[in-house]
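Researcher: Please translate sequence to structure tokens.
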Amino acid sequence: MKSRLTIGGIVAGLLAACSLAPTYHAPVLQAVPEQYKEAGAWMPATPADTQPRGPWWNDFKDPQLDELERRLSQSNPDLQAALARYQQSHAISRQAFSALFPELDIGASVMRELPSANAPQEFPNPPTADVFTTGLNLAWEIDLFGRLRNQAAAAKARAQASAADLAALDLSLQAELATDYFSLRGADSVVQLLNDSIKQYDTAWEQTRHRYDTGTAAATDVDQADTLRQNARAQLSAVLLQRAQLEHAIAVLLGEPPAAFSLAPAPLTAEPPALDTGLSSTLLQRRPDVASAERTVAAANAGIGVARAAWFPVISLQSAAIGFESVATSDLFSRPSRYWGIGPGVDLPLLDAGGRAALNRQARAAYDETVANYRKTALTAYQEVEDALASLHHLGDAQQADEAAAKSATSAAYHADQRYAAGVADYIEVTTTHTAALSAESAVLQAHTARMNAAVALVRALGGGWNASQQQDTPRS
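Model: Translation complete:
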């Protein structure tokens, strides 16, 4: 009956235990707008959280990109390292949680003893004896002031932050792969344009040389025609170098040596999909890096409770044991061989020369730092969305202007060819108009590639298909 009262008292004490951590509230940003400024009237903003979540790259409708993204999630070394970091953080969280409960060990030992001749002996003993011992040992810190609970809460918040870090890295690498892929396809389009132009320039050079041989063209016309085609070849070499480097970058993202990886050339034909930005107020729930920063704030808030608990006593059952002890194995488990012991302990701080006060100031300053970092991360998230929206908008306008310029430049080059063939224009006019036409057509392809990459940047800035509820899930392994 007495033991039951003791256990009941302990349980009642645990139920009444307090936490010294401040009540946690997520940091609040000032003046969060309802709409994105750069979305304007050209892109409607409606909440996207009700839409089905899935691989965001499927919206670009490119099977090759879909396959590359699948391989990325399985083989990227950075992702594998981040997953291992999350697993470590999750294990640390479980370890911190386990400290809330009693620790029970079972042990057994045998020891050969030689008693001291001067020790008081109630009964005569032999000179030496074998002592056999087996029993259970219990250790338990009674968490009256929330030190262990706040440690566990901080560890859990850090594990959640690690899960969000993993998701942020995953999203960043997915976006990097998509950007490299569309840049490579854009380079393929430019390569195709240059190859077609070189064929035309080679034909023009041969015709001009024939006209020179027949005395109807000057030597400078031949040189200018040759200059035009050689410049195009130089541009082609530069673009092929860029393509090779992009292909190597994609190989490394997929965890493969560049020598064993290649992508067959194909022009960029995809267009940016219609993207729903949602309301700006939902962005903080859709960005894993913002969620990670918020969980870091929560961990620091729990850390304040741990630091405050250092001012209060630590009460524990430092030694509670029950078992059997005997000098003979034959009666080790008999009733007379039983023993037990219990020894509660209290550790009460008295004087530490300001150490605990410094610990509390450190915890508070660490919390203030995480709040500032959270606000910076959130502001950067809004900036990245606005930047991507502005890029999509203005690059769309730029591409339209480039297309109009390319159409005019191509027409000018055609008429210059006709005027030269009729003998009413010199070859400088032909060279100038063809150079301008090639530059204008290249600008169209570059603007198209930039728009695709801006669409990828917007998806990344909006958090991809991630949302804060996924923080409670175990990341894929």
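Researcher: Any highlights?
Model: The two ends are 51 Å apart (CA to CA).
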